[in-house]
Amino acid sequence: xxxxxxxxxxxxxxxxxxxxxxxxxxxxxxxxxxxxxxxxxxxxxxxxxxxxxxxxxxxxxxxxxxxxxxxxxxxx
Length: 76
Known about the structure:
By secondary structure, the protein is mainly alpha-helical. It is built from three helices and two strands; from the N terminus they run αβαβα. The chain has a two-stranded antiparallel ribbon with strand order 1-2.
């Protein structure tokens, strides 16, 4: 079986992640985590769900979309 690895050309660096966090901080609240009890018990380690469904759009996509739009120049 071939294991897929992320394309390094599209992975953000730490500075890009920090910049996105700063842009999003005033727009969206941090997403809460909820422990997945059955899965945690089965695997013998803590597993958490990130509750992105609580965002205004009901998904994580609002973060990426807002970050791209907020990063654009007026000409773009």
